[in-house]
Amino acid sequence: MNSLRVSKVLNNNVIIANHPERGEVVVIGKGIGFNRKTGDSILLEAVEKMFILTNQQEQEQYKQLVPQVDEQLIEIIGEIILYISQKTQTELNEHIHIALTDHLAFAIKRAEQDIAFHNPFLFETKEIYPVEFELAEYAIRLIKERLGVDLGEDEIGFVALHINSAMTNRHISEVRGHAQLIADMVGIIETELRFTIHRNSLDYSRLLTHLRFAIERIRRGEQVSEVDKLEMLLKQEYPTLYSLAYKLTKVMEQRLKMPVYQAEVSYLTMHLHRVAPANLQ
Asked: Which residues fall in a coiled-coil region (predicted)?
């Protein structure tokens, strides 16, 4: 048996079906429910451009969500997710169907009521996740073209985090938390050194990239090589920056609830040296 059997049609783009190996599943795809009825058979080969939710909890959540969301939006999100999957050649976590649908439906409702949400770490998101940001731009552009609703750049940043969450199999709260942590650390740097970092500078971009990879290393428990001589030199030559770098690693340690290796302080000091004016070092 190499086919799905329709159990229930939820709308033109979503059906519940019996899978030959996985039992009851939710199938999402453009027009898959059109003119279908209970008992109809669909060849598995025909569902190449469709998504099958296999996790039971995800299925139940999606079933509850579908009746609350405009059918055209479900179709658009299906196209967006297919586009992301093809562009990145990545098997996305299936939770993106629920997370992105729920998020965008709410964002559209807010936009229609003229309620704006400011994204406090938009610039950081754009710098840290450029691929995801570009994919999110496509998503927001498609919604504007099809539905006539402009969700704006702030929303691009939020969608980019959902895309990264699906690509990396991390919960959105963790991804958002990391972006927020980086934005907060930039704020600490500017407050402590009493100057504003030029957001379009290459050094700022390098700093954000370093902070992102530092967080990733800490999260994985990955140790960077010790640099004793360099540490002594940096501590002596740039005491203010070294002290600030140490403070930032303690912030990371507290927020990530994981130990940070001492060598991270030295590497961070070097990046601070790049962005800080000479008179503040």
From this structure: none
- Taking the model in full, what pTM does it have? 0.82
Query: Which spans in 148-197 are helix H?
Result: 152-168, 172-193
With a CB cutoff of 8 Å and minimum separation 6, the contacts of 175 are 161, 164, 165, 168
Residue 202, by phi and psi: left (phi above 0), alpha (psi -120 to 50) or beta?
Answer: alpha
Q: Name the pLDDT band for 199 (thresholds 50, 70, 90).
A: confident
Least confident of 85-89, 137-141, 206-210, 220-224: 220-224
Distances (CA, A) of 151 to 84, 97, 163: 19, 19, 17
Lookup: tokens for 25: 């599943």
Give the type of residue at 71: E
Coil, strand or helix at 132: helix
Neighbour count for residue 109 (Cβ, 10 Å): 12
Q: How far apart are CA 245 and CA 261, in angstroms?
A: 12
